[in-house]
Each structure stands twice: as structure tokens, then as C-alpha cells.
Amino acid sequence: MLTLSPTLVSGATVIVRTDMNVPLSQGHITEDTRIRACVPTLRYLLDHGAQRIHVLTHLGRPKGTTTPDLSTEVLVQPLSDLLGESVEFRPDFTGSTSRIQLHQNLRFDPREKANDPTIIDELMGLSPTLFVNDAFAVSHRAHASVVGFADRLPCAAGHLLQAEINAMSPYLASQRIEGLTLIVGGAKIDTKIPLLKQFAATADHVLVGGALANTFLSAQGYDVGQSLYQPEQIDTARDIMCQFDTVHTGLHMPIDVICADDVQSTQTADVPIEDVCGDMRIFDLGPHTIHSYKEIIAHASAIIWNGPVGLSEFPPFATGTRELLQALANSPATTIIGGGDTLQAIADFGFTQSQFSHVSTGGGAMLAFLGGEALPGITALSAE
Ligand code: 3PG
């Protein structure tokens, strides 16, 4: 895979596919990790004599139509500030003479998701001489701007993409990796099946939280009251549990949980898992579970985490996620964390990214990569 070098970059007109798909609330960016993460590559291109830089990204899921609330114009100022360079916003795929230009949301154009090569034809009108993929977080999608330049231009991996691959590749082994613990949370089991299967073979421990745990608990025969879970995935959960029975990896479920009638409720209770019933809803790990998970974390030599273990955006249900983040921050182990909600939790609870070994910008991409899937955006860079 080609990586950035002064020879490649000097004098080039570069198209850079980034993923600046940041969370927005009423037009404001609430968490900017993915913008910051683009800076090293863009800085490198500027410092090594790229003549012109066309930055591409998607933002949200506008479904192929122009959606003003999802205009990439909102990214221009923060990106300019971080780079210390003026970035010009281009409302389409045409260029100007500015050195660095950020184009409109790729997903306003239905051809992006459809991987329609005519969008690449149009972008080739910018006369690029180099394509850089720095969008790890969308590299699991075979979208036009992610894979479509492979047979048109020299294609290189950006620094972020390279850093993500370097940080996570050691955990793609097929053999057991001593001291490895996986923490998996979030809502849905289906996106995490490959990850769970991969780590059943390699990890010492897998710690489960979030609504994902409710599906496993239900599959074990526990009543989860009115909690969010996926009844249609019970068989899948059972299959995964059977797989863990045949290996030496511990699959750990909550033994107690924080319950309330609804998320707005200030009346919460720590309930042993066997006592959950009726209208109760599980919103976080209970203190006994947190304690036992922290014991396991303290003995791990590497910890990988994707997905909050509770409804961490609501303060009464944030304890599990916050305490486990603190345990990782205190740990001398290699710590790799990812997933959009987990990034938000890191920011909300006042942690800094430097407290962890690697903070992945990927959500689905991290799951797919660690689950051993070939990511189209990476495969395209390796194509002859
Ligand atoms: C993400 O948020 O995980 C990436 O930006 C990919 O977005 P998508 O799931 O909408 O393709």
C-alpha cells in the first residue's frame, strides 16, 4: 500500500477523502475528533508542497438529496482554525485557485452511495494527480469516493488511515493473545457478531454491557423487563454463547444493573439481574458488575472497547461507562477505544484522548476491521 512521501506529494493536486462525519446538534458540532484526526495528513500535504488540495467528506445520512442542515460548510471554520490556513468552501465539485478547498457533502449526490463512476468522472475534472484515502471510518463502505479512484490515479493511504491500521492490526491474530480483554456495548448485536467471534478465539475476556447485554441475558433466560433488546437475535446470541463455551475466553455479563421506569426518571435502583422484572428498564451496569469488570481490566495487557456500557448521555446512567473509561485511563495496558458514542463519552466526561493508546475514529469500520473483514477502502489502495 502506497503511503505519503515528499516525492509523491510535491507539486501534486490531491483529492483527499476524509471522514469528518461529526455529531451535530442544532447546527453545532458537539464533538470534533474526526476533524482533528484529519489534520496530520492535510498538514503533511501543505508542508510538502502539494499544489492544491481538494478535501471530500460526507456528513450524516442525507439520502442523496441536498439537505441544508448537513452542509459541510459547518466544517470550514473549525478545519481552518486547526490547520491555521484558510479553507475555501466549494458548494459543488468544481475547483478554484485556492490551495485548500472543502467540497459539499458527497452524500447530497445519490451517485456517491451507489458507487456510480460518473461522480468520479466529474471529480476528475479537478485535474487531480493523487488520491489519498484518510477516511478510515467510512472505509467499510464501497462508496464511489472511497473506492472509485483506484483505477484512475495513484492512490495512497493518509496518516490517519495508516495509524488506524497500525494500531489495530496486531489484534487480528487467529491465535490467542495473552492478556487481551474486549469490552463491547452499544445497542445492537448484529453489527458486533464478527467482532465477538474473532475475540472468542483470541481474547482472555469479553465484557458485555449496553442494550447488547440485554439480548444475551434474555437468551440466558433472564427477564429483562421492558429493557431495549433484540428478540429476533436471541438465536444468534445463543450461538455466540455456545462458541464461547468451547474456548477458554470468559464471556462476562452484568450481574447487577441500574434500572428505572424511563430515562427521565431520577428514581433509579441497583437490581440483581435475577430480580429484573415487570416494567423495569435496564440503563446501566450496577456497582458489583462495574467492580468485577474493573478487576479484569486491571489484569489485562491490552483492552479494546467499542460502544458505551450504559445510556451514558444521561447522567444517572453514565457511571458504568465513566468508571470503565477511568479504569482504562489508569491502566498501563494498551488501550484502544472507538465508536461514535464512546468518543462522545470521552469528551463529555472530560477525558483526553492522550489518556488512551489509540482512539479510533471508526464505528462500523472499527467493528468490521477487528472482525477480520476486508474493508473496500483499504483493499482499493492495495489493488495493482
Ligand atoms: C460513521 O459514522 O461510522 C462513518 O462516518 C460512516 O457513516 P455511515 O454509517 O453513515 O456510512
CATH names the topology of the largest domain as Rossmann fold
Portion in helices: 25-40%
Q: CATH superfamily name of the largest domain?
A: Phosphoglycerate kinase, N-terminal domain
The CATH class name of the largest domain reads Alpha Beta
Helical segment count:
16
Biggest sheet: strands side by side, in what order? 5-6-4-1-7-8
Oligomer: single chain
Return Rg in Å.
Answer: 22 Å
Instruction: Characterize the largest beta sheet: strand count, sense, and whether it forms a barrel.
Output: 6 strands, parallel
- Alpha carbon gap, first and last residue: 9 Å
Based on helices, strands and strand pairing, what is the structural class?
A: alpha/beta
Silhouette: elongated
Count of β-strands: 17
Mean pLDDT: 96
- How much strand? 15-25%
User: Structurally, how many domains make up the residues?
Assistant: 2
> Which distinct ligands sit in these coordinates?
3-phosphoglyceric acid
How would the blueprint of this fold be written?
Layout: H1 6-9, E1 13-17, E2 24-25, E3 28-29, H2 33-36, H3 39-47, E4 52-56, H4 76-83, E5 88-90, E6 100-103, H5 110-113, H6 117-123, E7 130-133, H7 144-147, E8 155-157, H8 159-168, E9 180-184, H9 193-202, E10 205-208, H10 210-219, H11 234-245, E11 250-252, E12 256-260, E13 269-272, E14 281-285, H12 287-298, E15 302-306, H13 319-330, E16 334-338, H14 340-348, E17 358-359, H15 364-370, H16 376-382
Parallel strand pairs: 1-4, 1-7, 4-6, 5-6, 7-8, 9-10, 9-15, 10-11, 15-16, 16-17
Antiparallel strand pairs: 2-3, 12-13, 12-14
Helix pairs in contact: 9-11, 10-11, 12-13
This protein binds 3-phosphoglyceric acid (3PG).
